[in-house]
Known about the structure:
Elements: E1 6-7, E2 11-15, H1 21-29, H2 31-37, H3 45-62, E3 66-71, E4 77-84, E5 93-98, H4 107-122, E6 127-133, H5 137-145, E7 149-156, E8 159-167
Parallel strand pairs: 5-6
Antiparallel strand pairs: 1-2, 2-3, 3-4, 4-5, 6-8, 7-8
Helix pairs in contact: 1-3
InterPro entries: Acyl_CoA_acyltransferase (IPR016181), GNAT_dom (IPR000182), N-acetyltransferase (IPR051531)
GO molecular function: acyltransferase activity, transferring groups other than amino-acyl groups
Protein name: GNAT family N-acetyltransferase
Amino acid sequence: MPNLHIETTRLTWRPVxxxxxxxxxxxxxxxxxRRYLFDDRIVSRDWTENEIIKSGESFAKYNFGLWxxxxxxxxxxxxxxxxxxxxxxxxxxxxxxxxxxxxxxGLGTEVALAASKYAFANLGFQRVIASVDKPxxxxxxxxxxxxxxxDRSVCVNGTxxxxxxxxxxxxxxx
Length: 174
């Protein structure tokens, strides 16, 4: 089983736990995060708790789920990252969200790159997929920067969703 605690140059990650419910919920209801992650919907604490439980089940079964991300220097909580399977027939999808006061520092790129490397090295993924609302230009740039290629677009509830794919051989090294 791989080590579920991940470390990058500036960040440390650990799997989310039930004791993190309020911390994660507060991030997810932040207007900057929910705008694209939940189509501006405010999720409940119970919904957040259920997602944490599903993440724990996913870690137990697949060695992936949701991680909380902390700044290594200060141990400040800065966001989350991970993989989830949207439905039974889908492959895992990369998710991440960084608190807005940590934007424009390359941390989203650092998180997405590390999550992709982890998936290839430890989980046997053949590819990493991610989706992003087309207007979320910052996340589009993050995915392109780590080498993801646009795969398709789909209109969902009036919003164009872009799908990106990263194959192991296309992973850019930094």
